[in-house]
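During the reporting period the student researcher (J.K.) took over the structure-prediction task from the postdoctoral fellow and processed the backlog of single-chain submissions. One of the processed entries is reproduced below for the supervisory committee.
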Amino acid sequence: MKRTLRRPAMRSALDAAAIPTYAGPRPVAERADALHIIQAPGRLPRGRRVYAIGDVHGHLERLRTVHRMIADDLTVRPVPNAVLVHLGDYIDQGPDSAGVLRHLAGLRLPGVQVVNLMGDHERMLLDAIDGDRAAATDWLWAGGRGALASWGLPQDLPREVWAEAFPPEQIDFLRGLVLMHQEGDYLFVHAGVRPGVALRDQAREDLLMIRQPFLASEAAFGAVVVHGHSSNPAVPILGNRIGLDTGAGIGGRLTCGVLEEDGIALMVG
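J.K. obtained the following structure tokens:
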């Protein structure tokens, strides 16, 4: 007897086991006047708009492009209260870590509140500067050698002099980075949160580095988490999280999520 293949049942089982990290392509804009707004999983108060930029990883020109698009959008669509959130990982992998930090440390956008979050790459560098030799090794492996070159520093520069070698204003900028920021229904963090743990009790290591079980979770976290850290070529917009790292450090684009009332649009640079 010929055995009947039960493909629908198999497909259902595979769908049930899938990690919900990809929800299909999203409309993205390369110009401020081409934004396509879709339904968002959360809401901001009327008159409040948040621009959230994913992992930059040393790509200064892409960051400048997105900042210009934000300025253009505010000119075309002014709003009483605008917030710009950078989600961390400004350094390593790309060609100009030094330039990115110089740009961000001096960034002033009239009428815009700027919030800079810490990423795991910034934390590694700070720990290394503060004498953690294991962190220094991790940082060099994760892209620190190229970053040193962007500051004009040799790769074999003794770790004991790193603290004096970096521009002090950029180190001050790194030490001023924050772990999270909340607006309306949204929580902005670098990596994510641990499911089942209250937002106020989240560990620093999870906020900076978590992937699983955060990415696979369909639980409510107490806020819609807007994060970077885990790259995806298409932005996952799910009921409990929005991931804005589209792989700028590994050849992808730099993405900015534009959140306003109950809508979201995507810019890319």
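The committee noted the following: The chain has eight helices and ten strands.
J.K. will present the remaining backlog at the next meeting.
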